[in-house]
């Protein structure tokens, strides 16, 4: 008799538990989904909702970069490429300050070593691009003189976080940038004014 | 009793009206048959497509997501886009596969399911062929699916596919027994295998449906439902295509439109089994308050019957989708155990019960009506308990049920262009241009 009782108890238990399971899933059909629809139905841009210390795309503000290259050395996979060259009149200039997004893993080691805060994590993350060549992003358009910070003085004011990277992210159909160092301006015998960058073949020593 | 309303009647009407000679009568018959086949095929194709979309929406909401909502209003055209994508994909046949069998298999699956549609009614006048052996025909022709599935499993020359095919054959053949027993019981009650006659024997009101005929048929309906789901290889009985064990089972090697053929068959089968359940248990196209004989030529009543039939069938489809996103997959031994140790004995007991009931209680007598009403009250109580549990589960996590929120599709806020120019990267293109 015991086994027969067990048989019917099994059936009864199955019916009750199955019914309750169906009730659980049905209850979700009558509730509002948890989804916040991503690109266009949030009150604020998603970038503005991210936490303060979230590690988005790196941005380099060359106007307060000392060209110390600590970031390039700290990078475990050689994503950052910084080149400093000497100009006879204008002193040492940064000719390349590039990040390869195809390799960057957003570990943040570079931001920890940056003394002046030129290199920071922004909150930007939407960096889809049409061409893989665009993934190497150079943060300078023409050579920039390095910044010299005197001991005890604060480094120069940094541009607002995110403004640099946002201006540099390419549109979907923009052609990829040239992948080379920016040539130093020609040595001007008289004028010391910052010369307009003339395209010159090959890098000057 | 059986109204002349199938394809033969249509051909006869055309021949009489235009006084066609025997040759042209044959031509007319061929044209009518092809046209009806095309209409039924397209209708079921559309149902299958819409079901794929419905499945994804139901899945989304069940998991507190939104589901596809980008193509068309609430993503309704998603299935069209998916279909186009699958047609454009490469038709790939592995080198080591048995080419002809590999190519043939999906057609057998589609054929098995779509042929069953020939005898499944849409309304009193809309039926391709009201066969005298309708129920038997459906049970027989849907077995063609096993051949297709087994063939694809064998021809793929792949261990996962072969295992999936063999599992599928074992499962479908086993579950045909309880499904056939439940159909048999209804045939016993109706005294006919013709689908239209089975509907005609029921009535429009719920207490006249066969599901509420007696507690035995009430139980049988659930046996039939579960067995049909198992025959259609759907979760929780989807062992032949269990992803975690067999990659994709018998359709592992398929891609593009041939792969879609299997899924077209699967989703069409969901509609077909819901339509059969509607026919056998839920009174089909019967309009409440109007006897089957009085439907006549009134377009309103016939249209209402069509809407009622499709409505019931789609509720059945929803239940199948709902089951898929509720229940976990069974193990092979559990699957067979459920069939042989529970469903078949229960189906047999219910069949005997119905036979005895028909013998003892005269149809239409007071005790008969009382049993109908009590069974219906039982069903209503089950639905009430279910919805009480739904409310309980929603409240137990601090949520509440509100119809207004159901109608809102996901979170929607006012669009503010000053902060929200992010759409389609507009902010980015503008910013990039300014910087140069």
Question: Summarize this, please?
Answer:
The complex is a heterodimer of chains A (205) and B (436). Chain A has 205 residues and is of the alpha+beta class. Chain A has helices spanning 2-29, 46-49, 70-74, 109-113, 163-168; strands spanning 58-60, 80-87, 91-100, 119-121, 136-138, 144-145.
Describe this structure in words.
- The complex is a heterodimer of chains A (205) and B (436).
- Chain A starts with a helix and ends in a 37-residue tail after the last helix.
- Chain A is elongated and about 110 Å long.
- Chain A contains five helices and six strands.
- Chain A is 23% helix and 14% strand.
- In chain A, strand 2 (80-87) and strand 3 form a beta hairpin.
- In chain A, strands 2, 3, 5 and 6 form a four-stranded antiparallel sheet that branches. A two-stranded antiparallel sheet of chain A has the order 1-4.
- Chain B is mainly α and 436 residues long.
- Chain B folds into two domains: 86-360, no CATH class; 403-435, no CATH class.
- Helices cover 66% and strands 0% of the residues of chain B.
- Chain B contains 16 helices and no strands.
- In chain B, helix 3 (78-88) packs across helix 11 and helix 7 packs parallel to helix 13 (332-360).
- Chain B is globular.
- Mean pLDDT of chain B is 82; it is low at 410-436.
What are the key terms here?
heterodimer, A: 205 residues, alpha+beta, Alpha-Beta Plaits, 2 domains, two-stranded antiparallel sheet, 23% helix, elongated, B: 436 residues, mainly alpha, 16 helices
Largest interface: A-B, 39 and 52 residues
What's the story with the biggest beta sheet of chain A?
4 strands, antiparallel
N→C terminal distance of chain B: 84 Å
Strand coverage percent of chain B: under 5%
Approximate helicity band of chain A: 10-25%
**How do the SSEs of chain A run, as a string of H and E?**
HHEHEEHEEEH
Structural class of the secondary structure composition of chain A? alpha+beta
Structural class of chain B: mainly alpha
How many domains, in number, for the residues of chain A?
A: 2
The total count of strands of chain B amounts to: 0
Helix content of chain B: 55-70%
Strand content of chain A: 5-15%
Order of helices and strands of chain B: HHHHHHHHHHHHHHHH
Uncertain segments of chain A are: none
CATH architecture of the largest domain in chain A: 2-Layer Sandwich
């Amino acid at each position: 008799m015991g086994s027969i009782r067990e048989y019917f108890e099994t059936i009864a238990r199955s019916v009750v538990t199955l019914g309750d399971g169906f009730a659980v899933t049905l209850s979700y059909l009558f509730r509002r989904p948890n989804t916040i629809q991503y690109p266009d139905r949030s009150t604020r841009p998603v970038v503005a909702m991210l936490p303060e210390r979230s590690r988005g795309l790196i941005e380099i503000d060359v106007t307060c970069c000392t060209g110390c290259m600590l970031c390039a050395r700290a990078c475990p996979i050689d994503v950052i490429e910084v080149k400093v060259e000497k100009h006879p009149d204008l002193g040492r200039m940064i000719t390349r300050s590039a990040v390869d997004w195809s390799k960057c893993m957003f570990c943040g080691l570079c931001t920890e070593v940056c003394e002046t805060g030129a290199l920071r994590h922004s909150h930007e993350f939407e960096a889809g691009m049409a061409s893989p060549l665009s993934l190497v992003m150079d943060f300078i358009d023409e050579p920039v003189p390095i910044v010299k910070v005197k001991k005890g003085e604060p480094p120069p004011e940094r541009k607002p976080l995110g403004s640099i990277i946002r201006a540099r992210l390419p549109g979907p159909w923009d052609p990829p940038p040239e992948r080379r160092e920016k040539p130093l301006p020609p040595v001007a015998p008289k004028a010391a004014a910052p010369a307009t960058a003339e395209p010159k073949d090959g890098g000057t020593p | 009793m059986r109204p002349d309303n199938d394809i033969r009647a249509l051909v006869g009407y055309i021949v009489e009206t235009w006084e066609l000679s025997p040759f042209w009568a044959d031509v007319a018959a061929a044209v009518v048959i092809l046209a009806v086949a095309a209409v039924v095929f397209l209708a079921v194709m559309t149902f299958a497509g819409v079901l794929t979309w419905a499945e994804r929406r139901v899945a989304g909401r069940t998991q507190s997501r939104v589901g596809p909502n980008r193509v068309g209003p609430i993503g309704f055209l998603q299935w069209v886009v998916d279909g186009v994508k699958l047609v454009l994909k490469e038709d790939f046949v592995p080198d080591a596969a048995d080419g002809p069998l590999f190519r043939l298999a999906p057609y057998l699956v589609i054929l098995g399911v779509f042929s069953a549609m020939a005898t499944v009614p849409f309304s009193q006048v809309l039926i391709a062929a009201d066969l005298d052996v309708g129920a038997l025909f459906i049970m027989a022709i849907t077995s063609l699916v096993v051949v297709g599935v087994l063939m694809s499993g064998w021809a793929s020359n792949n261990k996962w596919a072969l295992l999936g095919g063999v599992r599928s054959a074992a499962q479908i053949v086993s579950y045909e027994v309880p499904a056939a027993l439940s159909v048999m019981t209804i045939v016993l009650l109706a005294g006919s295998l013709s689908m239209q006659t089975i509907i005609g024997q029921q009535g429009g009101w719920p207490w006249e449906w066969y599901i509420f005929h007696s507690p035995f048929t009430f139980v049988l309906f659930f046996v039939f439902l579960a067995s049909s789901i198992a025959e259609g290889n759907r979760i929780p009985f989807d062992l032949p295509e269990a992803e975690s064990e067999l990659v994709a089972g018998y359709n592992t090697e398929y891609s593009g439109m041939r792969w879609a053929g299997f899924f077209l068959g699967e989703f069409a089968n969901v509609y077909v089994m819901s339509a059969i359940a509607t026919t056998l248990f839920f009174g089909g196209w019967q309009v409440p308050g109007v006897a089957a004989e009085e439907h006549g030529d009134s377009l309103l009543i016939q249209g209402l019957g069509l809407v009622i039939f499709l409505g019931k069938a789609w509720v059945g489809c929803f239940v199948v989708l709902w089951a898929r996103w509720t229940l976990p997959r069974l193990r092979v031994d559990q699957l067979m155990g459920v069939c042989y140790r529970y469903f078949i004995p229960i189906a047999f007991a219910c069949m005997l019960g119905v036979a005895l009931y028909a013998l003892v209680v005269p149809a239409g007598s007071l005790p008969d009506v009382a049993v109908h009403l009590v069974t219906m009250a039982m069903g209503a109580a089950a639905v009430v308990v279910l919805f009480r549990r739904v409310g309980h589960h929603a409240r137990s996590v601090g949520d509440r049920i509100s119809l207004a929120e159901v109608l809102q599709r996901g979170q929607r806020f006012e669009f503010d262009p000053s902060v929200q120019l992010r759409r389609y990267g507009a902010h980015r293109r503008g910013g990039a241009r300014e910087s140069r």
